[in-house]
Design goal:
nine-stranded mixed beta sheet
């Protein structure tokens, strides 16, 4: 370990200008509040410590600790834990509770000195290629069940040397090593998947399957949600691989093609899974039915930076294949100041709340280098009567709704606009819609409880994205949200 000198990793900051705690408009069923933290923070990753306090890294190289306890203080108590880090984009704790931070160049582990200051730092993993390029981040630090960590490295598109391109465009697994006494020493690097462009969000579902987002661009005609598994290649070819004439492996398609420009930059993701801390308080016989997020349990939240919104995604497993749909989550407010600043990262707290870290970055789409954290309490009983989930069937699709819909409206085919299209992965930036077709419904059937509609089509086309645009189907003039969905069909279910 290395002791930290005060002038090396802990700067003497200027007095903080604290952002006012205020309500942030998200959507019905999502009550948002901005924390009262310094305006200059630019959150890049979020985690919680054993004492349930919040910890987050920033684009400016800092780690803050926050006592977020719903106090009435004018500022949420916050402490600068460490400063001067190389663009950290990941944070977590190991089994002993020590803070680990993934920086641009290495994974670091800190020990607390005179709380809440870092006292010592240990280098836990390094060795991936890195240059001064702004986008040479290391992202994630998603924890596995056996102490492993997952991270993503953006691609290589410049003329750098081979050593500086090592592991670029890959998702890596950091495997912990221990001494005879069981003390963790460091991590060993293993490649999991390749062909990623900008893998900016990683998350594991309850089954332990890993998913990662990717941004639209060269070889990526869509924004993507990819199901990561060993040996998978997701399409992006690094410049050095093209120069060497390396033949790429077969392409593994995304689980969800997230349309661009409906979304422009989907980054951090998290699953809305009931935290184990809450489940442990529930009697064992009742845990299977306990879902703190109600009909949103198990859904994914995605941070859409450019258009300042949150999206939602659902996954359907067909055999060994994951496929699914993307939906709007947040609703743009009339006054932009009342909405989200620029979602970059999200996480679920041990209390079952959704936290979203936002930034406006001068190096990424222009901005004044500020940020905030918004705490969102999800209230399932207040969700409007919109689309809960779209799933494929052997004959078409079923749509579940949050609330019962109007029977006459829901059984009228004219209230459903459905089209399908595809895009091809090429070395060009993005790509046009191909083979777009307006889909005609052969039959529309509503369930007895008016909460599920079945849509039968004459033909289904695997490899196509199905775009759903629905007229308001609620009773009276109630809000219907979301009214659109984008389903990626990889395989047609047997039933």
């Amino acid at each position: 370990s290395t002791s930290i000198a005060a002038d090396q990793y802990l700067a003497h900051p200027v007095p903080d200008v604290i952002a006012e705690r205020r309500v942030i408009q998200i959507a019905p069923g999502f009550a948002g509040q901005r924390l009262a933290l310094p305006e200059g923070i630019m959150p890049t990753a979020i985690c919680w410590l054993r004492d349930k306090s919040l910890a987050f890294s920033t684009l400016k190289g800092q780690v803050y600790l926050v006592d977020d306890d719903d106090s009435e203080d004018p500022a949420d108590p916050h402490y600068l834990f460490v400063d001067g880090l190389a663009t950290p984009y990941g944070i977590g704790t190991n089994k002993s509770g020590r803070i680990e931070v993934l920086t641009k160049t290495a994974l670091l582990r800190f020990s607390n000195g005179d709380y809440p200051r870092a006292e010592e730092v240990e280098y836990q993993a390094s060795g991936w290629g890195v240059t001064n390029d702004y986008h040479d981040w290391a992202i994630g630090l998603t924890p596995g069940k056996d102490g492993e960590r997952y991270l993503g490295l953006p691609c290589q598109q410049d003329g750098r040397k081979e050593a500086a391109a090592k592991y670029r465009g890959q998702v890596l697994k950091l495997v912990p090593n221990f001494d005879k006494e069981g003390n963790q020493l460091h991590y060993t690097i293993e490649t999991v998947s390749t062909g990623h462009r900008f893998p900016l969000g990683l998350a594991l579902n309850r089954a332990g399957d890993l998913f990662v987002t990717d941004n639209q661009g060269n070889y990526n005609p869509f924004n993507e949600l990819n199901h990561v598994r060993p040996g998978a290649f997701f399409g992006f070819v690094n410049a050095i691989e093209k120069k060497q004439g390396t033949k790429p492996p077969p392409l593994v398609p995304p689980a969800i093609d997230i349309p661009h420009p409906w979304t422009r930059s989907v980054n951090g993701i998290c699953f809305l899974d009931t935290p184990k801390e809450l489940l442990e308080k529930i009697p064992l016989a009742e845990r299977a039915d306990y879902k703190v997020f109600g009909p949103l349990e198990g859904h994914l939240v995605g941070c859409e930076y450019d258009s300042r919104q949150l999206i939602r995604m659902t996954l359907q497993r067909v055999g060994d294949t994951y496929q699914g749909a993307a939906y709007p989550l947040s609703i743009p407010p009339r006054n932009i100041e009342d909405g989200l600043l620029g979602p970059l990262v999200c996480a679920v707290s041990p209390r079952g709340e959704l936290y979203v870290g936002n930034i406006r970055d001068s190096g990424w789409g222009a901005g004044n280098n500020v940020g905030d954290i918004v705490k969102i309490k999800i209230e399932p009983e207040k969700l409007p009567g919109g689309i809960q989930e779209v799933r494929a069937t052997s004959e078409g699709f079923v749509i579940d709704f949050f609330r019962p819909v109007d029977r006459a409206k829901a059984t009228n085919p004219a209230n459903y606009a459905l089209a399908s299209y595809r895009r091809e992965s090429t070395s060009a930036y993005g790509g046009p819609n191909l083979d777009r077709r307006i889909e005609k419904l052969a039959a529309v059937t509503l369930s007895d409880d008016a909460r599920q509609v079945s849509l039968r089509l004459k033909e289904l086309r695997p490899g196509f994205v199905y775009e759903f645009q629905l007229q308001p189907l609620t009773r009276g003039k109630e809000l219907f949200h979301p009214a659109e969905a984008h389903y990626t069909l990889r395989q047609i279910p047997a039933e």
